Amino acid sequence: MALRTYGACVLCQRASIVRMMCTGMSAVAHPQSQVDFLKGEVHRKHPGVTNLKTLHLPVELQTAARSIILSAQVNRMTGRIQALTNFLWSRKRAVDDFTLRQKAVSLEKQLWEKAMESSGDVDVQVLQDRIRKKVLSELRRNTYHWTPLKYDEESGVVYMAARLAGGFAAVRRAINEIKKRDPSFAPQSLLDFGSGLGTVVWASHSCWGDTLKEMVCVDSSGPMNILAERLLKGDDEAAEPHIKQVYFRQFLPVSPKVQFDVVVAAFTLSELANAKEREEAVFTLWRKTSSYLVLVENGTKEGHQILMEARDTLLKKQEKTVHDTRPASVFAPCPHELMCPKLATESTTPCNFHQRYQPLPLPGHNDLQTEKFSYLILTRTESPQAETAGVDWARLIGPVQRRKRHIHCRMCCPDGQLQHLVVTARKHSRDVYRCARNSDWGDQLPIIQKVDDDVQTDSE
User: How far is it, in rounded angstroms, from Cα 88 to Cα 456?
Assistant: First the structure.
């Protein structure tokens, strides 16, 4: 019996020595595993995870919205919700005068060249008039006719039914990036430009409700401001607002010295008439920002390009008068400040993200839905994640495909390149592999040493 016990102890010691040797070899083979990018978290909650589970509207907001919608008794509500949803999703930017002139000149040149190829004498004046009419006709037929959106009380209710839950989901997911990566940030003031139904206030309150002391909502639409106040009061004029210190304005504060900890513009830049107005609005919002500027748009080509336009404005252009000299830097989702690689590809696909949410409990809206959105967060301070972790992070820009013993990850990397990486525990360390398996579209991954047979460009 004693001999057996002694033998078992020897085997245990040998096994322990082998494990120690393997661990040491693994650390040498995978120096990335020595970097404490986990910061004490388990793999499924690693620092790069910013996705949220299925989002639900706050109970008070859902109850108030349902009460307003049902009491409004809007005719053909279901059809109007679908029509408005489709219209907003397909909405494009207004074509500016410069682009329109370029199109006209190009089309006129093509028509002249085609006319000159045909034989025979022609009256130049008649031909010129004919070509001009043809150019005008083609421009009218092929140019997107942008018109500003105006909401009255009834159309505002339709908008509420169509976009309240989805808009809340997109904004809540975007600001969760700040909450997760900068947990010490405790904003006291917020500005919402183009506030509409006040969705940003509700999303921000659910994130930083304990610290926010002043929230200013700016929207030029009087009916929208009234609906937003009704939502805050639970559709009861005599009641106290559920969220205090919310102030509604139709114009931005004039003084350039007035700043807010967080400034948000959700689905707003796309409603401005031209590129010049968008640029002026972005500069104005940046002047009002003391810490973070959050921009959210539809996850379409148009939405993505509007955000990249805003990004270039703040990173590459300079205002005539600067009141806060701290420069802008990209906080999310881009892991770099180079040209967006998505815009460099021939078949331009938008950089967008998904968030699942529970829609308002209305007829035909009971199933879970997914909001597809694009966002951009700029900051006046350096990323706290990079400072503490000592490691670069890449952004997952597509679904993570989990396979047996390997994972396909499509990422935008800090070098400004898109990569398709096949992650394995053997080549990229067990920690990185498990983090990748627990990540999803929109999360971040610690940057991994390139391996020839694992890395592919998107063109491949």
Answer: 36
At 347, which CATH number? 3.40.50.150
Residues 232, 152 share a domain = yes
What is the C-alpha to C-alpha distance for residues 1 and 236, in angstroms, rounded to an integer? Answer: 82
Contact indicator for 294, 262 with CB cutoff of 8 Å: yes
Expressed as residue numbers, the domain containing 412 is: 392-460
Rounded Cα distance between 452 and 310, Å, is: 36
Is residue 152 helix, strand or coil?
coil
Give residue 75's Cα distance to chain centre.
34
Model pTM? Answer: 0.84
Query: Does residue 128 lie in a domain region?
Result: yes
Task: Name which residue leads in pLDDT, 71 or 454.
Answer: 71
Residue 442 covered by a domain: yes
- Report the C-alpha gap between 132 and 206 in whole angstroms: 57
- Considering the domain architecture, whether residues 174 and 261 belong to the same structural domain is answered as yes
**In this structure, are residues 332 and 177 in contact, taking their beta carbons and an 8 Å threshold?**
yes
**Is the Cα torsion angle 34, 38, 44, 48 positive or negative in sign?**
negative
Q: By the 8 A CB rule, do 169 and 241 touch? A: no
Phi-psi region for residue 429, left (φ > 0), alpha (ψ -120 to 50) or beta? left
Same domain, 235 and 323: yes
Nearest residue to 330 (alpha-carbon basis) of 272, 278, 268, 375: 375
Q: What's the CA gap between 358 and 143, in Å, rounded?
A: 37
Q: For the segment 51-84, what is each residue's pLDDT rounded down to a tens digit? A: 999 999 999 999 999 999 999 989 999 999 999 9
C-alpha distances out from residue 15 to 1, 29, 45, Å: 21, 21, 31
Residues facing 329 on adjacent strands: 379
State the CB neighbour count (10 A cutoff) for residue 447: 20
Helix (H) / strand (E) element for 217: namely: strand 214-218
Between CA 412 and CA 457 the distance in angstroms is 11
What confidence tens digit (pLDDT) does each residue in 304-337 have?
999 999 999 999 998 888 888 999 999 999 999 9
How many Å from the N-terminal Cα to the C-terminal Cα in the chain? 64
**Token duo for residue 211:** 């610290």
- Determine how many CB atoms are found less than 10 A away from the CB of residue 362: 17
In this structure, how many other beta carbons lie within 10 angstroms of the beta carbon of residue 221? 18
Residue of 285, 304, 301, 305 lying closest to 293 (CA atoms) = 285
Q: Which two tokens stand for residue 278?
A: 């968008």
* Chain centroid, CA 123 distance in Å: 56
The DSSP secondary-structure symbol of 186 reads -
36, part of any domain: no
Helices (H), 259-319: 275-287, 301-316
Question: Would you say residue 6 lies in a domain?
Answer: no
